[in-house]
Amino acid sequence: MILSGHLLPIIILSTVPNVLSQSLTDPTKRAESALSALHIWYNAGTGLWNTCGWWNSANVMTMVANLAKYDSSSKVQDLAKQIFAITVVQAPARNPQPGVEEKSAKKRDDGLNETITSESGYDKTVDELGEYSSVYPQGWQDVMSAWIDVKDLPIKKEGDPVNAAAAIPNPDDWLDGFYDDDLWWALGWIGAYDVTKNIQYLQLAEGIFMKVTKAWPTNCGNGGIWWSWRKDYMNAIANELFLSTAAHLANRAENKTFYIDWSKRTLDWFLKSGMMNDKGTINDGITNDCQNNGKTTWSYNQGVILGGLVELNKASPNSTYLPLAHKIAQAAIKALSDNNGIIHDACGPLCGGDASQFKGIFARNIQLLHAADPKDVYKTTIQKNADSIWANDRNEGNQLSINWAGPFIQTANASTHSSAMDALVAAITV
């Protein structure tokens, strides 16, 4: 593997042989050791993680932010702040499809209804089985830049890495035409704000959210947002992220009422959309005639809404929000767990680059619900999965792969590793 512009690992546990780190039982030490292993994939030249995609990198950053919330060690704090500061400056140049929303908006304003195509080479599809696949521009996932000494980056020459980005970040830089991608980045920057209290990160998240409001409404129920600028699919993940981002912002931004309103409107539409089935789990989306499409109940679709409901209940308490979250969470644990309590997606164990991120997102949001209203079932689920990952899904370099039940499947990458780390981070708190 070629490392480009990476920050050197700073936690020496990554150099401990697997036979020794196998005995680690402290959740924080496990997460720190995994963080060192993860960081070999960080590319300071691009501000992204090699071996995973654009939206995946937003999730990796969110996981790092969550670890920094629960681990006060100076090494983790400093590393997280450096990642945020470098990413906000370097990553926009690697947006795989910038500006497509504006192009499509102009065509709609002209009253034209023809199909709008992108020439960027970036696309996301859902196959007949409901599995997602991202296709990147040619060469995008090759070595993304020449090696750059992180000390030579402008961001590292201007002092405090938290505040080194003097220019106000432009939300347009983070938009790629798929609204779920956009909102993953918004949540990532909210996480960065939570750790640093740098208002620019919060303002960036607000700006991204405001851009995505233009995707409202769909042609079903006069509400909801589309999956992409093509306006040809209404799926659960985009709308759950829209709800969750609004609710997160309601608890942090000045215009609280504005974000509460968006979150409540989205939840109301979502519950009427039919995406939730009679088992209490959430299918992938709805058809053009506004019916549940019966497609896969992905783990991340069961997860993101939990964090949204927790944040909405915090911003505007309501007796129905947490019970709804518990209903979804417990139905999902039942549906997704094997006989040993380990979470799997339908595509497992050999999921592609998109679905390999999903289980960690579920674990991350189960943790948020447990923190708000603890239940033994959540503690057990988090601990069982974290323990299994450490015991059965880890190689000699402390890299984490796709099958949380084990055995380790070659080859781990930044997506599989960070997803598994979400469960390790969640275990710190329970």
TrEMBL record:
This protein's UniProt keywords: Hydrolase, Signal
Protein name from the UniProt record: Glycoside hydrolase family 76 protein
Region (Disordered): 95-118
SUPFAM superfamilies: Six-hairpin glycosidases (SSF48208)
GO molecular function term, any single one: hydrolase activity
Signal sequence annotation: 1-21
Ranges of compositional bias, category Basic and acidic residues: 100-111
Record flagged with keyword rRNA-binding: no
GO biological process, one term: carbohydrate metabolic process
Coiled-coil residue windows: none
Source organism of the structure: Amniculicola lignicola CBS 123094
Lineage: Eukaryota, Fungi, Dikarya, Ascomycota, Pezizomycotina
